[in-house]
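Dear colleagues,

As part of the handover before I leave the project, I'm documenting each prediction I ran so the next person doesn't have to rerun anything. This entry is a single chain, and its sequence is reproduced below.
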Amino acid sequence: MFGADQLSPALREQAERREIGFVVILWVTAAVKLIGSLVPLALALNLWLFIPRRVASILTWLGCVLRTVYGIGDIASGTIRVSGGNDDGAIWRAILWGPIWLLGGILYLGAAWLHQRETIATVT
C-alpha cells in the first residue's frame, strides 16, 4: 500500500481491495519501467547482450521524448488541479512525480546524445 495515498480515489479503492486485475497492471507497469530503464543504461555502458545498438538508440530517444512530455504534463496538470482546489494526489504530481519523470527524460536525452556523438566520432 506504499504510495497509495498519491492515487486518485477510484484507484486507491482498487488498491485497498487488492483487485487482481489492478495488481497485475501495477506489476506489468513496474516491469516495463524497469526494463525501459535498462535500455539507456546498456547504451551508455556499451552492454549489448540482446539489443542491437540502433534499436537501443531509437528506444532511448523515444523514452526521452515520452518521459519529458509525461513529466511536463504531470507538473502542469498537478499545478492546475491544486490551484483549483482539487488535491486528490495532484500535489504529488506537481512537486514529486512530474519532476522525477522530467529528470528521467533529461537523463535519457543525455544517454542518447552521448551515444550519437560517440557514434559520429567513431565513423569520422
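The longest helix spans residues 90-123. The chain has one domain: 4-123.

All the best with the project,
I.
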